[in-house]
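Q: Got a minute? One more chain.
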Amino acid sequence: MSVSLYRVKFARTVLMLQLVTFVLIGALFALKDLTWGVSALLGGLAAWLPNMLFMIFAWRHQAGHEVTGRLAWTFVFGEALKVVVTILMLIVALGVFKAAFTPLGLAWLSVLIVQIVAPAVINNKG
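A: Always. Here it is, folded:
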């Protein structure tokens, strides 16, 4: 992996692409039904917000540190926190807000796909 994958600017770009993705998907589903649009926004938020929290956590703990075992455990803790927050947000969206599963799942998967595909596209643009 290239060093640019760890830059703040790069992370912000990926987060913005994810944000735009789930807002557009939510708007498209809202054309069908407002409940579907809100469900899609909740699904996208369930994928995007934990990524945002992880990035903030990572930026706070990596400032000027060389790679050590402590940093690796910080990364593991951040990933575990991200998974737990994602699961909790999906449970709340489905259980409390009674979100429709199809738009919620599609928006959630779309944000995850952007997270996987965006680094390859951004690194190959030049």
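A: DSSP finds four helices and no strands in the chain.
Q: Perfect, thanks.
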